[in-house]
TrEMBL record:
InterPro entries: Flavoprotein-like_sf, FMN_Rdtase-like_dom, NAD(P)H-dep_reductase. Its EC number is 1.-.-.-. Pfam families: FMN_red (PF03358). The lineage of its organism: Bacteria, Bacillati, Actinomycetota, Coriobacteriia, Coriobacteriales. This is NADPH-dependent FMN reductase. Keywords: Oxidoreductase. It comes from Enorma phocaeensis. Residues 1-151 form the NADPH-dependent FMN reductase-like domain. It comes from the Bacteria.
């Protein structure tokens, strides 16, 4: 089973990237044969129909990785009660048909959503907006359980995200996502 993680923040040291790395460890402990890859997509350009065909090489690479994955796990921050514009841009590219024979690569793809934020919502509002969009794109959304971790900076210790009482929730979501994909 191949899981592709899409982290909504492009920052290398983002809390959501650290949460994705923790999820990778949980998936490995639950199913040692599963792969969990964090998508590298910082080079995807802003969507522009003038450069849509042929798609830029970065977009082609990302589409291939999404298509090959058995499931997509989003890790989104919350910026002003919304998911980041960079993530919306990526989803705009992925929502476009590849060509006349192949539609968009997200169609019917199972997905899970998690997030950690500095504020008190724990990314719940951003996640709801993301669910609206990926549902429109016909992704198969695992609505329960979702993981929202508020006040993320309080869980940062020496550059590491220490989940503490949130860890059992991540473990449950990882287990549920493996079952959901199956």
């Amino acid at each position: 089973m191949d899981i592709l993680a899409i982290v909504g923040s492009l920052r290398d040291a983002s809390m959501n990237r650290k949460l994705a790395e923790a999820a990778k460890r949980e998936i490995a402990s639950l199913d040692p044969t599963a792969t969990f890859t964090i998508l590298d997509w910082a080079d995807v350009p802003l969507f522009n129909e003038d450069i849509e065909r042929p798609a830029p090489s970065a977009v082609q690479r990302v589409r291939e990785q999404v298509l090959a994955a058995d499931g997509i796990w989003f890790f989104t921050p919350e910026y002003n009660h919304y998911f980041p514009g960079t993530l919306k841009n990526l989803l705009d590219w992925l929502s476009r048909p590849v060509d006349a024979q192949q539609g968009q690569v997200l169609d019917r793809k199972p997905c899970a959503i998690s997030g950690v934020s500095a504020g008190g919502s724990g990314t719940a509002v951003a996640q709801d907006h993301l669910v609206t969009l990926v549902s429109l794109l016909n992704m198969n959304v695992m609505n329960k359980p979702r993981l929202t971790i508020p006040f993320g900076f309080s869980k940062m210790k020496d550059g590491a995200l220490e989940l503490g009482d949130s860890l059992p929730y991540l473990q449950r979501q990882a287990e549920a996502f493996l079952a959901f994909i199956s």
